[in-house]
Amino acid sequence: MRRIIGLVLMGLAGFLLTTALLALVYVPGQVKKTPLDTDSYTRLTGQASALPSGEGAPVKALSHTVADGAKSDGDVVVFDTFTCLITNEDGNSPDCVDDTDPDKRLVTASTDRFATDRKTGLSVNDEKYIGDATPHEGLVNKFPFGVEKKTYPFWDGLLKRAVEANFEGEEKVNGWNTYKFVVDVVDEPAEISNGIQGTYSSLKTMWIDPRTGAIQKQTEQQKRVLESGTTVLDLDFGFTEETIKANIEDAKANDSKLGLVEKLPLIAGILGLIAAAVGFFLWNGARGAEGGDLRTRRDGDGGTPAYAGRDDLDVFGDQGDDAETRRRVDLRK
User: Fold this and answer.
1) Taking the model in full, what pTM does it have?
2) What domains, with CATH codes, occur in the chain?
3) Interatomic CA distance for residues 50 and 198, integer angstroms
4) Mean pLDDT over all residues of the chain?
5) Which of 12, 108, 184, 300 is the 20 to 30 Å CA partner of 163?
């Protein structure tokens, strides 16, 4: 029985050690990827002043990002993003309105299509993914898994190029540790509206989950100015508290999953080694016990052969007759 248990444990050890190897080499590469079923809503609020009135007003923004699973694959994910910014003076405006809105609340609305590497988060501009959409540069909607404390290229939709996102330390957001990155664009020449040239400034701060690269919180101060010096748009807004809370909850859940994946090689490896040691001990001990039983059967009285007292095994016959013994000796002579 011990031998069977030992064999079972050694088989289990092989399974656990194989699992540890896969968890170390293969599984992280499959888990640390942007999911293909992304469908997220990001809401922002703040203040803005814009032409023609130039007066400040509360604003709200919605960014809806959906992954195109049909165009995505194992390495690249394709996204479609819709963004809408409207005034929200009474605090009860819908997420978005169109340009026929009688209250003229629409400030700007746009759509964007882009593709990113599912591991690094960097833009992919192959036409088979994005078709004739505008090519992107750098990171677009998230940072890579395992964020480093360094400068990353980050896409700016108005400038149509990547700008520097500089690491500026670690900060807690709702008690959750994040990496803080800042994008600072100052008076860059740009097309600030349809066909209208001017200068563009943006101070964007992003708080990033270090493990997944997801943006947990974001604020931005943006200004668009005509060549004449007239301000077209002066915007100061950021993620709502509800959005930040939901992002942190997602980060905690994903962190637990990824943490388990990272610990799995160690846990499975240790259990595999223990199972192998115990299994070998039981199996080897059982072999020794069986050998001992065999020797006991062959040498049952502790040293005297079992057949020593049996007359029928006397190959020389009856040796009690001295005369017969002498005749046998004489014959050999």
Assistant:
1) 0.73
2) 33-261 (2.30.230)
3) 15
4) 81
5) 108
